[in-house]
Amino acid sequence: MSINHNRIKVSDLEKNQPDKILTTNQNGELEFSNINNIKTDNYNDLDYTLEGKALDARQGKVLKDSIDNLNSTKQNNLTEANVGAFENTISTVTTITDADKVPLLVGSLRRMISWLSFKNLLDTIYQPKLISGTNIKTVDGKSLLGSGNVVIPDMDTTSDQTVSGVKTFLNGKLGFRNVSNSITSYFKNTNTASRTYLWPDKDGTVAMISDIAGSMPAPYLQNVSPNFLPVTQRANIVINGSFFTPLMTVTMSAGTLNGWTFVSSNQIILDITTGTTTAFYSLTLNNGTSATYTAFLHVNSGTVFKPTASDYTDVASIDVSEGDFIKLNTYRSSIWDSNNHATWNKEFDYTKNHELQFSFIQSPLGPGDVSVSFSLINAVTSAVILNGTNSSGASYYKINQTGQQLNVTPTISDWPNKIVQFRWFDGVLSVYINGVLQFNTTISFTSNYKIIFYAKRCNFKNIRYIEY
């Protein structure tokens, strides 16, 4: 090529025009051309594999839109909703190579969550300082932090252990091994309602009632308080005695037994409501062996009077401090000795239907017979109307009136559970024991009367006068 063809005119360089580029024309001569007129060899797709082609701007726009759509799927907050939405946009694969696992994980997280949110997530998981009870849990109120070993108690140990609170054993039974560890005995719960079981308040071997039914002594009733109640009244009755058990049955002949409480083998408490009529209630206790106590409670519709210590006159050698319980002070060798006495100063009104009642019990100062007596006397003249006494230690009790002796035959051992009643109803004086008529007397009162108690070898208790 001629060198003259490539020379540039100085005059062209001095024009100082913008957007010019040095090119060769069709003759091979150098000249300045407008840069906007330069032709490029471009290609409008992303599937070309040879060099030398420029990417068309239109295809660049498609590429930009794809990148923008990808960025729009990235979330600043990692939630179940946006994780699920992202999960539905990607395809699944059947295998992942070891080399792809970390990039795939990191790339997937980057597509789901921004770096700032991802960092905040890591900061939440990572704790620069562990604080007991704040970002680390405690065990039974004690921290897991620190040195040493957490010891879990061995429930098979033979050392003593204290267990508090209610412990529930599933499958309905609790097992105990014997000393030689050869057999297991079980306590099995077949209850259909909640129950509370009490251990007997004594040491020694305790057998279940079902194992010894019929061989345990019958429940013994020693005393009842109170043993007298008005009609239609709810009250608690304290029963003292022996051989009571938590599982024994308790029934009354009348009234309503609302429930009962086992206090100990020597005491139970009845919650009862009395009926609407005068009656003597009997009580049946069964601990495997049954015992019935008649007249354990007297329910009455009348007005009740009980003596106090100040209601007695002519008191000699007996204790009247408890009022309705007269006690022997001095033992008398002769049952005919009447030096121990007291007169209840209450006048019994013959113009009204009424009842006088009392019981007597062996005194610890006296021998094994009743040896007790009383007299009904005229309130004005003090003349004896009727006497009652035992017959020289005999097994019956005599109610004497002029020219007539009437015997009441319960044995001496029965008398502590007997209530003697003198009823004056409609002009007839009758003798009852525990509400059962023994006989009618021929006595006819024309004035009020009183009673004198002679405590020779026995005590009087539950003394009452009732007007109807």
Protein architecture, described:
The chain has 468 residues and is mostly beta strands. It folds into 4 domains: 3-37, no CATH class; 75-124, no CATH class; 220-302, Immunoglobulin-like; 304-467, Sandwich (Jelly Rolls). It is built from 6 helices and 31 strands. The protein has helices at 10-13, 57-72, 80-87, 98-112, 115-125, 209-212, and strands at residues 20-24, 30-34, 42-43, 54-55, 138-139, 142-143, 173-177, 184-188, 220-225, 228-230, 234-242, 249-252, 256-264, 267-273, 279-286, 290-300, 303-305, 312-316, 318-319, 327-328, 341-348, 354-362, 372-378, 384-390, 397-401, 404-408, 420-425, 428-433, 436-440, 449-455, 458-467. The chain has a 7-stranded antiparallel sheet with strand order 18-21-30-23-24-25-26, with no helix packed on it. A 6-stranded antiparallel sheet has the order 17-31-22-27-28-29, with no helix packed on it. β19 (318-319) and β20 (327-328) form a beta hairpin. The longest helix has 16 residues, at 57-72. The relative contact order is 0.08. Mean pLDDT is 75; it is low at 209-214 and 392-396.
Structure class:
mainly beta
Count of the domains: 4
Share in helix:
10-25%
CATH topological fold name of the largest domain:
Jelly Rolls
Strand order of the largest sheet: 18-21-30-23-24-25-26
Tell me the number of strands.
31
Helix segment tally: 6
Runs in which pLDDT lies below 50 for 5 or more consecutive residues are 209-214, 392-396
Mean pLDDT: 75
- Report the biggest beta sheet as strand number plus sense, adding barrel if it closes: 7 strands, antiparallel
CATH architecture of the largest domain: Sandwich
